[in-house]
Structures are given as C-alpha cells and as structure tokens.
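Give me the 3D structure for Cardiolipin synthase N-terminal domain-containing protein.
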Amino acid sequence: MIASSNFTSCNFSFLPIRNHSCSRKSQLSPLNYSSNKPRSSFISLVNVINPNDIERATKYLAFLNNYDEKKKKKKGLLQICHNAFYVRTSQDPVLVPLKENGGRSGGSGGDGGGGGDGEERDWTSSFLLFTFWAGVMYYVFFLSPNQTPSIDMYFLGKLLNLKGDDGFQMNEVIVALWYIMGLWPLVYSMLLLPTGRSSKGKIPVWPFLILSCIGGAYGLIPYFVLWRPPAPPIEETELRRWPLNFLESKLTAGITMAAGLAIIIYAGLSSVDVWKEYFQYFRGSKFIHLTSIDFSLLSAFAPFWVYNDMTARKWEGKGYWLLPLSLIPFLGPSLYLLLRPSLSAAPVSQSPTLLDDK
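Predicted structure for Cardiolipin synthase N-terminal domain-containing protein (358 residues):
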C-alpha cells in the first residue's frame, strides 16, 4: 500500500515527503500533466502524507490547472491570429468566370475592352478610332471650306432666335438639320445610359454626353475611344431615379421619335430648289458643312450602340430585325428605343447583391 502510494505520489514534482517510507533524498519525476490519469489521485495519500504536504500539493495542482487553461487560451489565440493572417495574405486562386471558348474572361470583358489585372488591354480598336477622330478634327480645323464666315455667324444667330424678323427666310433643310441635331444627344443618352457605361476605365459618360450637345460627334467620339465594356450592373432602385427613369420611359422615346419624324418630313417636303441651295451652302459654308458631317457621323455610329444596348438587355433574339433598320438615320435608332424592353425586365438590371442571393 505504501509502495503504491509512493509511486502515485510521484505525480508531484520535487515534493519533499516527510513519511519515512519515502526517502527525502530521492526526487520525484516531473509531472506529466497531459496524462489521462486524474490528478485528484493524491487524495489517496491522505493517510500517508503529512497534512502540510496535502495543502502544498493542492496548491500545486491548482497551479497546474491554471497553467493548462492559460496554455489552451494562448494556443487558441495563436490559432485565431494565424487564421486571420492566412486570410489576409492567402495566395489562393480567385475563381474567374469562363468564357464560352474555355478561356478565362478578364475583369472588364467585352470585345476590345481588355482584361482585368494581369491582362493587357488590346488597344487596336481604340487606336484606330482615335486616329480616325484625329483625322476628322484635322479636317475640321484646317481643310473644311470656310468661304462664308459672315454668313455662318448670321445663320447661327437666326437659328438661335437672336435675330429679329428681318424678312430673310432660312433654308428649310438647314432649319431641319439644326433641330434634329438637337435630338441626337437625347438619343445617345438613351443608348449609353446605362448599358454603354465603361466599367474598368472608370471614365464617366455624362461629360461627353453634355459635350455632344455642343460639339456633336466631335465631342462624343473620344468616349468611344476610352470605352471599356461591359457596363457595370445596375440596381433596380437606380432605375427609378433621375435620369434613368426619364431615359427609360417609353413616353420619352415616343416623343423623340415623333419629333424626329416630323422634322424629317418637313425637310423631305421641301422643293428641289431648296435642296440645291442647301448643297451650295454645304460646299462653301463651314457651319453647314461641319454640321452635316456631324449628322452623318452620329448616324454611322448609332447602329453599333443599338446592338450593344440590345445584347445588354438580352433582346438580340427577338429584336434582331431592328438592326438593319437602325441604319436609317435617326429614325432607325429612335424606333429601337421605342420598342426595346425595359431594363427592369432584363437580366442586366439585377444588382450584384441579388445575383449573389440567387
């Protein structure tokens, strides 16, 4: 009994044993507190150990238990810190959506828009478009005819209603051209907001749309150069705010198309002599010449943006027949704007939060 008790009491490291059955010179082995044996086994030594030793052993056992708890807390804290550090510095690959051809799509997506981080953008289309715009601007400032500068200022004053009734009647075709040019910025606003916005380049479209009210296509083409698809997602709440609620309205599209149709009919009903006079002004007047080229440029770029808006709304299957009609100056894009589905019914209108929930 005493021998087994002495063996059990060896769980207490360096405890001096006052009982004669255990030598004072012998030292006990260090405590293995990770052992599965219960530490309360020292109670069995009550009969063979001095009460003072029991008190000291109890204090020692409390110290060991406290040490165990601190070690567990420290280990848990280190583990939490390690996990947090791993999350912040982890080099785990990020899942990128795959294109239909099997390759990984870039951050910006779209044709000619370039990829995300780590991908170089294809600047070919942008460079060609910039070269075209630079050539047009060189023609505007240096090569366009400017034989009647005084007449140009007079025409501009008449069209702005700055001149009184002096008995001179403006050419009907020039008047129709002037008013329909005022509708083109509205048409492009409905085409570019929100489906024509740039995502990665972070170039806002609205400054160029405002500039197009004065400079027409000459101020809008630079945005085409900087544009990087696809457009960022649009939330449902944003569609109910200005200006998207106005630009998405069928009433706005209907009034725009009706006004444009009336202006075109007004010019088309003009006599042959009026058209001949217009062409004479076109060959000599810088103002009429550049305005006519501006109308042609806006008409040429419109079918592309019609197609871009159509694909963003997932309507290319049903609205494909409108693409050839969009080649008709002004009336084609206006008809598309009147018939296109609203963004609230298209998949592009869903916000990232809604997509994640699904």
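The chain has a mean pLDDT of 74. Let me know if you want a second pass.
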